[in-house]
Amino acid sequence: MLAWKEYPRTIGGLAKYLNWFKDFKRPRDLHTIAANTKNPHATVSLFGSNFEQNGNILSHSLE
Amino acid sequence: MGDNYLLTVLAALSEKPNFIPNLFTQKRYTAEGIFTIKVFVKGRPEDITVDDYFPVYSHQPAFAKPTIDGGWWIPLIEKAFAKVHVNYEMISSGTQAEAARFLTGAPAEEFQNNIQTSEEVLQQLQNAVKEDYLVTAASFNEWNGLVNGHGYIVKNVYTFKKSDGSETHIVKMRNPFKIIDGSQHWTGRYGADDHNSWSNELKTHVEFDSLKPGEFFMTIDDFK
């Protein structure tokens, strides 16, 4: 993920930057989009599948 | 995005049983995608309601990602935090104490490691761990595998008496973030690769063999 300061300060960069925030999606849409790719997303849940199985929230490898 | 101070505190709070689920009014992911999160704004309890539309980039959330097991609680809380602060840009820098106050309503204080001695830091950490306080730290340098600008969680402090009578104080830490390349793990004293410093007695004392992902040890001097 790019940091704010890394956004290219060009017309093209600005257009791309503005475009980011026109593109809003819901988790289930992202899940559907990724379903047939090399990196499918984990099933959407509020606290994660681990919590649903054993009540423990996973919070490692955060991005 | 620069809000890993918030993610660090969230990761630390997720270790407290039921703390994160209790922040949410909803207990499951609802079809409507509307969530109410109970937080503290300027010390007052507030319910912040957000929907689940996230800015995306390359078919991924542009800012915080869901957990590896599909939990979206972090992007939702991040969105509520951004909403309170007007937008995402306004939360691109901040302090862990500020995030802790927002999430817990409890007072938070910052260690002054740069002016305190190792003994003073040790005493503060020991007291905090004993009281079961939330303790987090941040690194402002690339040093021995610590990542500049990353947050870390302090899990415990151990004192071990060596055979010569001297004492060793080591701090158990956790890096909650994804390790992007192999160099992003602690390589200093008592790191996993430092075979010379570890004795079997010390490993048993600190339960070295039951380390969870991201956990590691360092001396109190290196912590300071």
Structure description:
The complex is a heterodimer of chains A (63) and B (224). Chain A is mainly alpha-helical and 63 residues long. Chain A has a domain at 24-63. Chain A contains three helices and one strand, in the order αβαα. Chain B is elongated. Chain B is an alpha+beta fold and 224 residues long. In chain B, strands 5-6-7-8 form a four-stranded antiparallel sheet. In chain B, strands 1-2 form a two-stranded antiparallel ribbon. Chain B has two domains: 4-104, no CATH class; 118-223, Cathepsin B, Chain A (Alpha-Beta Complex). The chains are: A mainly alpha (63), B alpha+beta (224). Chain A binds chain B through residues 1, 3-4, 20-21, 23-27, 30, 33-34, 41-51, 55, 57-63, and chain B through 1-2, 7, 10-11, 14-15, 17, 20-21, 24, 26-29, 33, 35, 52-57, 59-76, 89, 92, 174, 176-179, 212-214.
Write a brief structural summary:
The complex is a heterodimer of chains A (63) and B (224). Chain A is mainly alpha-helical.
Topology:
The complex is a heterodimer of chains A (63) and B (224).
Chain A: H1 11-20, E1 24-25, H2 27-34, H3 49-54
Chain B: H1 4-13, H2 19-23, E1 34-41, E2 44-51, E3 54-57, E4 60-61, H3 73-84, H4 96-104, H5 118-130, E5 136-138, E6 151-161, E7 167-174, H6 200-205, E8 215-219, H7 220-223
Antiparallel strand pairs in B: 1-2, 3-4, 5-6, 6-7, 7-8
Helix pairs in contact in B: 1-4
What keywords describe this structure?
heterodimer, A: 63 residues, mainly alpha, 3 helices, B: 224 residues, alpha+beta, Cathepsin B, Chain A, 2 domains, 4-stranded antiparallel sheet, 7 helices
List the helices and strands of chain B in order: HHEEEEHHHEEEHEH
The chain-level structural class of chain A is mainly alpha
The appropriate CATH architecture of the largest domain in chain B is Alpha-Beta Complex
How is the CATH topology of the largest domain in chain B named? Cathepsin B, Chain A
